[in-house]
Write a structure and sequence with these properties.
The protein has 196 residues and is α+β, with helices and mostly antiparallel strands. Helices cover 50% and strands 23% of the residues. The protein has two domains: 146 residues, 2-Layer Sandwich (Beta Polymerase, domain 2); 42 residues.
Length: 196
């Protein structure tokens, strides 16, 4: 994919992500006004790099082009929402679902049904309306929602295990240790939630 094609490809995804970030900021501010607290600790956003898009298209057996990326990838734009407590995640999710012009394209709940390695997070892909000269199109944005503890676990697991996949086998004691850490963090979160 040429650099110019990539630059053209990502513009509406950047617009969709900016639109969603503004909505989430407004939602968090509204919580602060009405309830004197807020569910979102912070948010991170990212647009997939050209090389990552090309690599993912190859893995999927697709031609490497902007058109194929538009048709086959739903994670070109991504937002990670870090909340204080587990229930905050579901409050934010419910408020996103109430926005009538947002489409929920996919939802995977790894909080209520954690992955085998201990990973916990809520993933949704939403369609965000982007208006342009010729009308409007929906563009997908991937949202990952986690608590601060879930994010700590996922970040460290990614750094130590995932990035060293070739060096750390499936039955590595490190992987078992991370499963234990996930349980400990879950129990800590539950106790903190009870203290509110």
């Amino acid at each position: 994919m040429e650099e110019a094609d990539y630059d053209s490809l990502i513009i509406p995804y950047q617009d969709a992500m900016a639109n969603l970030m503004t909505r989430l900021d407004s939602l968090n501010n509204d919580y602060r006004r009405k309830y004197k607290n807020y569910p979102i600790h912070h948010m991170q956003e990212r647009i997939k790099k050209k090389e990552s898009i090309e690599e993912k298209l190859r893995r999927k057996g697709c031609r490497v082009s902007a058109e194929e990326a538009r048709e086959n990838l739903t994670d070109i734009a991504g937002i990670r929402i870090i909340c204080y407590f587990e229930e905050d995640i579901y409050h934010v999710l419910e408020r996103i679902k109430r926005q009538t012009d947002i489409l929920i394209l996919q939802e995977k709940d790894y909080i209520r049904q954690e992955k085998e390695n201990g990973y916990r997070s809520l993933h949704i892909i939403v369609g965000i309306p982007v208006y342009h000269i010729d009308g409007m199109d929906y563009y997908p944005v991937e949202i990952q929602m986690r608590t601060m503890a879930m994010d700590l676990w996922a970040s460290m697991e990614h750094r130590i295990c995932y990035k060293n996949e070739g060096k750390i086998g499936k039955d590595s004691p490190k992987k078992e240790t991370f499963k234990e850490f996930a349980k400990e963090l879950y129990h800590m979160e539950q106790k903190l939630s009870e203290m509110k």
